[in-house]
């Protein structure tokens, strides 16, 4: 089954609005029709009830007038009085016809028939007897039946009032039913509209979230997952452009890595010759050196070591960035021995800056890759030397906390601004804090240290407390005693 796909985000928004608006419009139309129908029915009922009551009252009045004219005609014998009676009689019969058409009970219809029959008897008697005769003066004959007819007419009027009251009660019941029906419709409509609104929102937001995730992955350098956007055609076309961009960035990234490998390899060969030559000069193998020449030889040697470290950082980062770094080779290692070797290697830079190194720690053994742990400590110490002022102090401590070995490198430099702490481990990031020295770093040292720490299942962070002397930065590394998978197995065993 092929689903409908709008051609643009605008069409998708219109579809979403239609999903929400159609039920609301349908509910509004249904409510309007129900209210109009109820109002029309109520209006008809009220008008019919009013007309029926008025007709019943007119019936009583007409009988009263007919009785008066009949008595006067029997006594006076004036033909005009009989004509007036006949006029009222015509109105009386019209009222009877109107009442029969009204919704009345069978008993009331019988009373109307009795009224009609009684009046007909009186009218026949009026026509058959001579008015004004002495016999008629002694008794009015059938005319005396009018009071009984009036009583019946009043009874009919009372019955009509009850019938009308019952109809109005039925109207109230029907109005209550209509109100409950509208309430149920509203109750059912609101959740339905909410569901449809959620569906419409999802239809709009889902492709936008896909776009956001795709762009974020590109921004984070994750080029391994293909980009596929499902939604309106214009967003799908934009997703195809992003996929093209991902492939292109992947190619450029591979070209960059290949370039770094080639350049690093080409630089290492002449750099080795420079280092060996500087070392030969420093050792006075080719002849004695005066003090100025010895200083130049030491500078050449120190900078060649620094340049070699930059090249190794580029190589290591290239390997890490492409996920081709081998897993750590774990063996029992004492971090204090690694720290001692790194401090000895950095002795020239420390003496040149007159920086004192304070080592605090206890003997401890951790299963780690000695080479990668050396890179971690060397990068942290190099970073601390870079930002520590002359005659400053660096403290390196090793301790144990719970199931973790904690290594801290604290300097007495200017510290890292709070706004930059979350970015110092990003590749090639250079903070705004100025450091002493003419050579600027690559911004890869802390990024490589973080990757190596994570490969060991550890953590690295910028601690909140200051360094020696109440200022500076404290870089903290935590490594597990055992391998991460063994720690996980032990934690699960304890939990069970």
Explained architecture:
The chain is α+β, with helices and mostly antiparallel strands and 496 residues long. The protein has helices spanning 9-76, 79-101, 106-128, 134-138, 146-219, 233-282, 291-321, 335-345, 347-353, 370-387, 445-455, 484-495; strands spanning 331-333, 356-361, 366-368, 393-401, 404-410, 459-462, 474-480. It has 3 domains: 9-201; 223-325, Helix Hairpins; 328-431 and 440-495, Heat Shock Protein 90, CATH 3.30.565.10. The protein has a 5-stranded mixed β-sheet, covered by helices on one side. Strands 1-3 form a two-stranded antiparallel sheet. The relative contact order is 0.06. The model is unreliable at 134-140 and 484-496 (pLDDT under 50).
Q: What is the topology?
A:
Layout: H1 9-76, H2 79-101, H3 106-128, H4 134-138, H5 146-219, H6 233-282, H7 291-321, E1 331-333, H8 335-345, H9 347-353, E2 356-361, E3 366-368, H10 370-387, E4 393-401, E5 404-410, H11 445-455, E6 459-462, E7 474-480, H12 484-495
Parallel strand pairs: 2-4
Antiparallel strand pairs: 1-3, 4-5, 5-7, 6-7
């Amino acid at each position: 089954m092929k689903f409908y796909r709008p051609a643009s985000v605008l069409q998708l928004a219109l579809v979403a609005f239609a999903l929400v608006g159609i039920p609301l419009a349908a509910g509004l139309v249904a409510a309007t029709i129900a209210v109009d129908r109820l109002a029309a029915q109520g209006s008809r009922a009220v008008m019919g009830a009013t007309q029926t009551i008025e007709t019943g009252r007119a019936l009583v009045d007409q009988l009263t007038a007919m009785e008066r004219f009949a008595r006067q005609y029997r006594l006076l014998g004036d033909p005009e009085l009989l004509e007036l009676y006949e006029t009222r009689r015509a109105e009386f019969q019209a009222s009877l016809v109107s009442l029969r058409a009204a919704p009345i009970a069978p008993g009331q219809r019988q009373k109307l028939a009795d009224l009609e029959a009684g009046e007909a008897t009186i009218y026949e008697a009026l026509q058959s007897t001579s008015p004004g005769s002495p016999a008629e003066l002694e008794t009015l004959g059938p005319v005396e039946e009018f009071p009984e007819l009036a009583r019946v007419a009043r009874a009919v009027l009372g019955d009509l009032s009850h019938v009308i009251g019952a109809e109005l009660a039925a109207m109230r019941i029907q109005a209550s039913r209509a109100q409950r029906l509208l309430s149920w419709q509203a109750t059912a409509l609101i959740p339905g509209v909410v569901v449809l609104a959620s569906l419409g929102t999802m239809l709009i937001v889902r492709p936008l979230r896909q776009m956001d995730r795709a762009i974020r992955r590109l921004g984070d350098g994750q080029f391994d997952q293909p980009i596929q956007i499902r939604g309106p055609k214009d967003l799908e076309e934009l997703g195809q452009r992003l996929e093209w961009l991902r492939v292109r960035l992947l190619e450029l990234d591979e070209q960059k890595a290949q370039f770094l490998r080639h350049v690093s390899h080409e630089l290492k060969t002449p750099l080795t010759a420079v280092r060996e030559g500087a070392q030969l000069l420093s050792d006075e193998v080719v002849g004695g050196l005066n003090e100025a020449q010895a200083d130049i030889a030491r500078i050449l040697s120190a900078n060649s070591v620094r340049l070699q470290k930059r090249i190794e950082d580029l190589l290591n980062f290239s390997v890490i960035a492409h996920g081709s770094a081998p897993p750590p080779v774990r063996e029992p290692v004492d971090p204090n021995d690694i720290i001692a070797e790194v401090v000895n290697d950095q002795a020239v830079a420390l003496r040149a800056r007159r920086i004192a190194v304070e080592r605090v720690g206890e003997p401890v053994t951790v299963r780690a890759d000695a080479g990668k742990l050396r890179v971690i400590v060397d990068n942290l110490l190099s970073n601390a030397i870079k930002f520590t002022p002359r005659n400053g102090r660096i403290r390196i401590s090793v301790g144990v906390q719970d199931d973790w070995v904690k290594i801290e490198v604290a300097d007495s430099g200017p510290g890292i601004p709070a706004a930059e702490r979350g970015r110092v481990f990003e590749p090639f990031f250079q903070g705004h804090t100025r450091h002493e020295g003419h050579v600027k770093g690559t911004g890869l040292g802390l990024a490589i240290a973080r990757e190596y720490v994570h490969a060991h299942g550890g953590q690295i962070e910028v601690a909140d407390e200051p360094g020696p002397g109440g200022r500076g930065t404290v870089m903290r590394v935590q490594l597990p005693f055992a391998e991460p998978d063994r720690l996980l197995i032990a934690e699960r065993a304890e939990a069970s």
